[in-house]
C-alpha cells in the first residue's frame, strides 16, 4: 500500500492521518510568516524547478540534461545553495525523457537526495528512453536514495505546503479539487487532440498550494491528457502561477486548460531553440486575467512578435550561455514576487 495516498487517491487511515499532518504543518508555517521559494533553473530547454517550502524542505522537479560538463547539475546545486538547501528531500521525475531525467547521475554527485518520486515504469518503446530509464534506476540504486511511484490524488509529504499529484502514468484525478468542478466554457470548439503514446503523456503533474497561493507544473503533459483535467468540467480550479507545459510547445498548452486555470502569471521554461512556439506563446500571452509572462530564454522561433520584452526574459537574444534563472517568492496570503536573476528586477503581484 502506498502510504502517501491523498484524500483523492484512497480512503486509508494512513492517508487521512498524513493529510491532516501536512495541513497542520502548513498552518505552523503560515504562522511563522515564512515564504515559499520556487527557482526556475535554466537547463537550456529541459526542466529543473526547485521548490523550497517555508519549513525549509525541498522538492526538485526534474534534473535537466546529462553531459555538458555537469552544466545542469551545477546550476541546480547553485540554486539549492542560494536557497539554503544542503540536501534535496524529494526529486520528482515527471517522465523519462532525457531533458528531464538525464541529469540524475550527475546531480547525485553534487547533492544528496532523500527520495525520488516518479510515475512508475518507463512506458515508451524507444531505445533512447529505455537507456535513460536504465541509467536512472542504476543511479538511484548506487546512491542509496529511496524511490516511490505515485498516482493521481497522492500527496507528497513535504511540510509547510500541500503538493498533490494531479496526473501520472496516463491517469488523472477524477474528483474536483476545492475551487474546481465547474463546467469549462473554454472546452467548446476545441479540436480533439491526438493520442500520444510517448512518455510525455505519462507525465507526473503536481499542484502546489501554500495558503491562498497555487502553482501548477504538469511536466510535458500533452493536449489530450491536459484536457482530461479540465473538460468538460475544470477539476483543478484556478492557479496563481502556471509553468507552461512542455516548455511552451504546441503539442501542449491547449486554450481549454490555460484559460480555465486563469493564471495571474506564467513562467516559460524554454530554451533558445526549444519551446516558446509562437502558437503556444500566443495562447498563454492572451489568456484572460494574465498579468505577465516571464521566459527563461528568448525564443528564436518566436522572433520579436512572440517574445516578451527583455526585462521579462532571464536569458535574452544574443546573450552568452550564462544560465540565469527566474525565482518566485510566495506568501500565504497569495502575494508573490518574481525575480529575474540577470537584472535583479523584481515585480510583486498582490492577491
What does this structure look like?
- The protein has 351 residues and is an alpha/beta fold.
- The chain has a single domain (13-349), classed as Ribonuclease Z/Hydroxyacylglutathione hydrolase-like (Metallo-beta-lactamase, Chain A), CATH 3.60.15.10.
- Helix content is 23%, strand content 25%.
- It has eight helices and 20 strands.
- It has helices spanning 13-32, 71-82, 98-101, 104-108, 127-143, 223-230, 255-261, 278-285; strands at residues 36-40, 49-52, 58-61, 87-92, 112-118, 146-149, 155-156, 162-168, 171-172, 182-183, 205-210, 213-217, 233-234, 241-243, 265-268, 292-297, 313-315, 326-330, 336-340, 346-349.
- Strands 6-5-4-3-2-1-18-19-20 form a nine-stranded mixed β-sheet, covered by helices on one side.
- The protein starts with 12 loop residues before the first helix and ends with a strand.
- Mean pLDDT is 92; it is low at 7-20 and 22-32.
Summarize the topology.
Blueprint: H1 13-32, E1 36-40, E2 49-52, E3 58-61, H2 71-82, E4 87-92, H3 98-101, H4 104-108, E5 112-118, H5 127-143, E6 146-149, E7 155-156, E8 162-168, E9 171-172, E10 182-183, E11 205-210, E12 213-217, H6 223-230, E13 233-234, E14 241-243, H7 255-261, E15 265-268, H8 278-285, E16 292-297, E17 313-315, E18 326-330, E19 336-340, E20 346-349
